[in-house]
Amino acid sequence: MSIFSHHRLIILISLFVIASVNLTGCTSSRYKHSQDFFPNPILDPSTLKDAVVKPEPLSAMGNPEKYTVFGKEYYVMDQSAGFKQEGYASWYGMKFHGHATSNGEIYDVYQMTAAHKTLPLPSYVRVTRKDTQESLIVRVNDRGPFHEGRIIDLSYAAAVKLGINKTGVAEVSIEVVSSPMKGPENWLQVSALSNEQSAKALQKKLQEMQQWPVIIVSEETRSLHKVRIGPIPVGQATEKVVEILQYHQLPDPLVLAEHQL
């Protein structure tokens, strides 16, 4: 097995991508290099510092309810306080340096970051190598690794600090030390229809064009079926969905806060 993570996928989960959410692997044409490789110069592990834990909101991108890779569905956690896991860690290097991560940030091999399949982004995780008991803290801002048995994909810097850059993989335990704070959320009411089948058809259409949940709230006494997208984080994420609706020539939605539901 190569020391590099050949099956590593960095996925930009864009609200403009059809996201029910079927995440697919990046094609080789996206990257300048076909194979992963070490940076130059090689890092000195004694100079590397852990990620600094700080309170952060949930990323506007990279946190769909679920997504699919290689035919397998993954469900993103709503909250991850106290989460622990054991398995193998791998790492990814210069092939992916400068490309977008799942939450829309840019991957930097020299930062203490990592990828996980289901933790909310961003999360801070303590990674402990089982055979040496060496540990560090990384900031999870990406999805992966999509390889059987591997639970976390480390940046090159994190791999160097744990010595995993030399072995390619190592058995580790991980523990969440800080998860993102849940910020204010909106719901977008796209339509209120008297015909239930029409509401279901619209629900399906909306789900195919964006990543957030689509629900139908029915008022039986009035024979009214309200089609809503949400919850969506207030700010950029909400604005992106509105842009998608406009692109598909749908009416401007009614924006609802939680107390207005």
Descriptive notes:
By secondary structure, the chain is an alpha+beta fold. The protein is built from four helices and twelve strands; from the N terminus they run E-E-E-E-E-E-E-H-H-E-E-H-E-E-H-E. The strands form three sheets. A six-stranded mixed barrel has the order 3-7-4-6-5-8. Strands 10-11-9-12 form a four-stranded antiparallel beta sheet. The protein has a two-stranded antiparallel ribbon with strand order 1-2. It is elongated, with a radius of gyration of 20 Å. The N terminus is likely disordered.
Give the structure's gist in a few sentences.
The protein has helices at 156-162, 164-167, 196-209, 236-247, and strands at residues 66-69, 72-75, 84-92, 113-115, 123-129, 135-142, 150-155, 170-178, 185-193, 214-219, 224-233, 254-257. With 261 residues, the chain is of the alpha+beta class. The protein folds into 2 domains: 28-178, Beta Barrel (Barwin-like endoglucanases), CATH 2.40.40.10; 185-260, 2-Layer Sandwich (Alpha-Beta Plaits), CATH 3.30.70.
